[in-house]
Amino acid sequence: MVFKRKDNRKQDEARPITAKVGVIDNAKGSAYFKIGDTEAYAAVYGPRDIYPRFLKNPQKGLLRCHYNMLPFSGMGDRVRPGPSRRSKEISMVTNKAFEPVVMLEKFPNSGVDVYIELTETDAGSRCAGICAASMALADAGIPMKDLVVAVAMGTIGKEVLVDLDYSEEAFEGEEVADIPFAVIPRTGEVSLLQMDGIISKKLMDEVLKKVMPAVEKIHKIQVDAIKAKYGVKK
Amino acid sequence: MILSKEFRKQIIKSLDEDYRLNKRKKADFRDINIEVGCLSKAEGSAKVTIGKTVVIAGIKFNLEKPYPDTADKGGIMVNTELLPLSDPDFESGPPSINSIELARVTDRTVRESGVLDFKKLCVEEGVKAWFVAIDIVPLNNDGNLFDAAALAAVAALYNAKFPTVTEAGTIDYKKLTKEGLPLKGFPTLVTVRKIGDHLILDPTKAEEKFTDARLSIASLDKDTLCALQKGGEKTFKLEEISKALDLALAKGEDLRKVLKGVCK
User: Is B112 domain-assigned?
Assistant: First the structure.
C-alpha cells in the first residue's frame, strides 16, 4: 500500500518552507520558520546578566530556550496561556538540542535567552521552533559549532514519511510513529530524539537512513535565509 | 538607551519646535499596516504594524454557559501577553500589571463601544452562548502597544468566522462557516502622551520612557467617546484633557479609515 499524502506530497518531501532571518527588531538575533501550517518565531537576547543570580556560572554561560504555543495557535480549543508540562518539556529538550553546538564557555557568568513562539501549529512545532531558534542564534552572533536542523520524521504502516502534518500524526488506519529529530549537519550527530507511537526495529533503521537527506534540504534553506539577510551571494 | 535628564531636555526642546527626534510632528503617527487573516488556526486574526511595533491578534470561539446575570448574552475575553520575545524589558512569569492594563483597556474599547451585539451571541438562553477570546501579543515593541492592540482586536473580530457546530453540539474548528460576528461600527483607540507641557501621539519606546502622563481615548466616530483611561505618574490639567480629546478624536477618524479599508 502506498499512503497518499495531501497535495500529492512525496513520502520524502517536507511541506513548503519559508525561512527569514532578522524579523524582530528589538532582538539581538531573530528568525521566522514556517513549514506547512506550522509557524514559529524565535528571538535571541544576550549574552546578558542572569537572574536569579545564583544561576551564574564562572565556567560557562547559560542557555535558556523557552517554547510557547500562543493561545490561538492550536488545531482546536484555545490554548491556555502560560507554561504547561508539555511546553516545559519541549523547552528542555530544545535546550538539550542546542547545548552540544553552542559554545557556552565563550560567555561565562552570563546567559542567552531564546524565545520561541508558535503562532500556528499543524504538527512538527518543536522542530519548526528549533529550526527558527537555530537561525536566530546564528543571527545573534552567538558562537556555535554548527546550525541545528530539526525534522519530524514519522511512519504510517510500513512507510517512512518526512514532516508529518497533524492529519497524518493522528491517522487511525495503521500504526503511526512520530519521531522528531534534531541533527548537527556537519557531524551527522543527533541532539534531539523522541518517539511516540509503535514502530519495529527494522522500520526504525529505515527511518535512520532517511533522516540525513531530509536534514540536508532544510539545512540549505536555513543557510540561504541567513545569507539573504547578510547579502552573501549564493 | 540613554535615560538622562539631558536627553529629556533635548526631547522637550525639540518638541517646543514641533519636531520630534524621529523627525515627526507631535500629532504624527508612523506608517500603519494592517493584515487580516494571517493565521490559519485561529477563527480570525490580524497583524498590525505601526512603525517598528508589531502586534498580532487571534480569535478563538467557544460555547459556554452564559453568566447568570446576563443569561441571554454571550461575551468576549481579551488577553494580552507581553512576550519576552518582543522586548528585552519584558520578563517571563505571570502577567504583569502592564499586560493586565493593556488587556483591560483593549477590552473596554471593544465592549463599551457596543459594536458587538452580545445578545446575538446567545444560542440558548441560560444554557449556551458564544464566547469570543481575543488574544493579543506583540512580536516587537517599539512603543504605542495600546493603539496597536485595539486596531488588531477590531480587525481580527471583523475577520473572524464562526466555526461549525456538529449535531452532537461540539465545535468543529476545522470547518468555519461563512458567518461573521454581529458587528457594526469601528471603535479606535488613540493614546495621547504628555511630555513636559507637550502632547504627542504614537510614541516610540524611547519617547514612552519620558512620558509624564498618558490618556487613552477610545472613540466610535468624530464626536463619540466610548472609553477613557488615564495612566502615568503625573497629572493633566482640564484644558489639556480637552485638547487631548480633540487630538484623539481627529486621529481616531484617520485610524478608522485604515480599519474600514481592511475590514469588509
Answer: yes
Domain that holds residue B113: 24-262
Q: For B23, what's the count of Cα atoms within 13 Å in the CB-facing half-sphere?
A: 2
ipTM of the complex: 0.87
**Choosing among B85, B135, B165, which should be mutated to test the A contact, i.e. which has the most A CBs within 10 A?**
B85
Residues whose CB falls within 8 Å of the CB of residue B197, separated by 6 or more in sequence, listed in order: none
Domains and CATH numbers, chain A: 12-226 (3.30.230.70)
pLDDT digits 0-9 by tens, A41-63: 999 999 999 988 999 999 999 99
- B139 vs A contacts (CB less than 8 Å): 23-24, 41, 117
Q: Which residues of A touch B60 (CB under 8 A)?
A: 71-72, 77-78
Q: Please return the burial class of B219, using the count of CB atoms within 10 Å of its CB with bins 0-12, 13-18 and 19+.
A: buried
**Residue B173 with chain A: CB contacts under 8 Å:** 75-77
Query: Which residue on chain A is closest to B164 by alpha carbon?
Result: A76
Is B214 within a domain?
yes
* CATH number of the domain within which B49 lies: 3.30.230.70
Secondary structure element (H or E) that encloses residue B45, with its range: strand B44-50
The tens digit of pLDDT for each residue in B179-220 reads: 999 999 999 999 999 999 999 999 999 899 899 999 999 999
Of all residues in chain A, the one with the smallest CA distance to B37 is A120
- Does the global pTM surpass 0.90? yes
H/E run at residue B110: helix B97-113
Query: Is residue B165 in a domain?
Result: yes
